[in-house]
TrEMBL record:
<feature type="region of interest" description="Disordered">
    <location>
        <begin position="1"/>
        <end position="42"/>
    </location>
</feature>
<keyword id="KW-0067">ATP-binding</keyword>
<keyword id="KW-0808">Transferase</keyword>
<dbReference type="InterPro" id="IPR000719">
    <property type="entry name" value="Prot_kinase_dom"/>
</dbReference>
<feature type="compositionally biased region" description="Basic and acidic residues">
    <location>
        <begin position="10"/>
        <end position="19"/>
    </location>
</feature>
<dbReference type="InterPro" id="IPR008271">
    <property type="entry name" value="Ser/Thr_kinase_AS"/>
</dbReference>
<feature type="binding site">
    <location>
        <position position="164"/>
    </location>
    <ligand>
        <name>ATP</name>
    </ligand>
</feature>
<protein>
    <recommendedName>
        <fullName>Protein kinase domain-containing protein</fullName>
    </recommendedName>
</protein>
<keyword id="KW-0547">Nucleotide-binding</keyword>
<dbReference type="InterPro" id="IPR050108">
    <property type="entry name" value="CDK"/>
</dbReference>
<feature type="domain" description="Protein kinase">
    <location>
        <begin position="135"/>
        <end position="418"/>
    </location>
</feature>
<dbReference type="GO" id="GO:0005524">
    <property type="term" value="F:ATP binding"/>
</dbReference>
<dbReference type="GO" id="GO:0004674">
    <property type="term" value="F:protein serine/threonine kinase activity"/>
</dbReference>
<dbReference type="InterPro" id="IPR017441">
    <property type="entry name" value="Protein_kinase_ATP_BS"/>
</dbReference>
<dbReference type="Pfam" id="PF00069">
    <property type="entry name" value="Pkinase"/>
</dbReference>
<dbReference type="InterPro" id="IPR011009">
    <property type="entry name" value="Kinase-like_dom_sf"/>
</dbReference>
<keyword id="KW-0418">Kinase</keyword>
Length: 425
């Protein structure tokens, strides 16, 4: 299965790891910020009536195919220096990297703050920042621990957008790198079913950074709770989700937080995968252990609950199987309250793992979390009232063995997904 826990250092690329760093670094820099920052009455940022708050992890979105995000640097010198970014493996700190000093100077001259260009220049290479004065903020539409999202108007292009302000500590290089990794991931992706990053708002003197996205009216969770989906609608949404995931995986990106609230939908029924705050790069040729503290609990595969650190696209496919079941049932299919309860619910639905499963997993938690008695697999029985092709696909996607879940590309060929018709709404 390739998900045994390695003794090598696991890359703590989770939000929890960065949160710990934020907490400790905020104490370290509080004296440095002191009177210089506290004496400033005006908070730099986007114009609006409500004060910008720190926080959250909301799902924004923004896509205008006629625009290519932030304005491009286009002088001849920059054209000569512009190179294709190399495909990235997961390294000691996956995500972002420095650029040569000369390019760093160009970025600062273009308007980027030094705290960003100095440690994460690759994420912004070739772009220049948008000005906060060219946006009119309306109100907050979502907030969580790591970012806040606002509905706003792009005054320059006369359209409604969503602005995502990410929480980070500019005095901590690791915190900046973690934040910038989401930018780098988004810049690698370009697909109709993946939310496109249109630009960034900041300045040389700013301590804030906003990601600009297309405004999307709905998310899949909200629609699922208020609407009973027909079979064609389920096929339509699942086809778009798997198409977007196939693109992500083909570009070497794991999303690692697929759930209904991260799947945004516009009024035309177009679905886009959003919130890449937990995403990371993968390279099949570089087996680097990663954190298991990813994916929202109800959509987290058993190998992550058991502490696996070597995993791949199969974690996103498990989450997709949970989404498919949820679209038919109208509610989450594995709503555990704790990690132990979540594993128990998984084993009750998917059956007890075989001895071969535990042997391949090689997890130190295997003896602790083994179910007390044998459960038989009952997915077919649980979903018997729904289309048989969909039940078979759920069976595949919710395989306990990650190697049996297939790929997004193979799932797209399933009879449960094949759909030719009108938009989903």
């Amino acid at each position: 299965m390739g998900c045994g826990v390695s003794k090598s250092a696991v890359v703590d690329d989770s939000r929890e790891g960065v949160t710990r760093e934020l907490a400790s670094s905020s104490k370290r820099v509080s004296k440095r910020k002191g009177s210089a920052l506290n004496s400033k009455k005006k908070i730099d940022g986007v114009r609006g009536k409500d004060e910008i708050l720190d926080g959250a992890d909301m799902k924004a979105s923004l896509i205008d195919k006629k625009l290519d995000g932030s304005m491009r640097l286009c002088d001849d010198q920059n054209k000569e220096k512009k190179r294709e970014r190399p495909e990235l493996a997961v390294l000691d700190h996956p995500g972002t990297g420095r650029v040569p000093k000369g390019l760093e100077g160009e970025q600062v001259a273009a308007g980027w703050p030094t705290w960003l260009s100095a440690v994460a220049g690759e994420a912004i290479q070739g772009w220049i920042p948008r000005s906060a004065n060219s946006f009119e903020r309306f109100y907050k539409i979502g907030q969580g621990t790591y970012s806040t999202v606002y509905k706003a108007r792009d005054v320059t292009h006369q359209k409604i957008v969503a602005l995502k302000r990410v929480r980070f500590d500019k005095f901590d290089p690791e915190s900046v790198k973690f934040m910038a990794r989401e930018i780098l991931v988004l810049r690698r992706l370009d697909h109709p079913n993946v939310l496109k990053l249109e630009g960034l708002i900041t300045s040389q003197t700013s301590r804030n950074l906003y990601l600009i996205f297309e405004y999307m009216e709905h998310d899949l969770t909200g629609l699922a709770y208020s609407t009973k989906f027909s079979e064609p609608q389920v096929k339509c949404y699942m086809q778009q989700l798997l198409s977007g995931l196939d693109h992500c995986h083909s570009r070497g990106v794991l999303h690692r937080d697929i759930k209904g609230s991260n799947l945004l939908i516009d009024n035309n029924g177009i679905l886009k995968i959003a919130d890449f705050g937990l995403a990371n790069f993968i390279d099949p040729h570089h087996n680097v252990p990663l954190t298991s503290r990813v994916v929202t609990l109800w959509y987290r595969p058993p190998e992550l609950l058991l502490g696996a650190s070597n995993y791949g696209v199969s974690v996103d496919l498990w989450s997709t199987g949970c989404i498919l079941g949820e679209l038919y049932c109208g509610r989450p299919i594995l709503p555990g309250k704790t990690e132990v309860e979540q594993l128990h619910r998984i084993f009750k639905l998917c059956g007890s793992p075989s001895e071969d499963y535990w042997r391949k997993l090689r997890s130190p938690h295997s003896t602790v979390f083994r179910p007390p008695h044998h459960y038989r697999r009952c997915i077919a029985e649980t979903f018997k009232e729904y289309p048989s092709a969909s039940t078979r696909l759920i069976e595949t996607l919710l395989s306990l063995d990650p190697t049996l879940r297939g790929t997004a590309a193979t799932a797209l060929k399933s009879e449960a997904i094949l759909f030719i018709g009108t938009p989903c709404l």
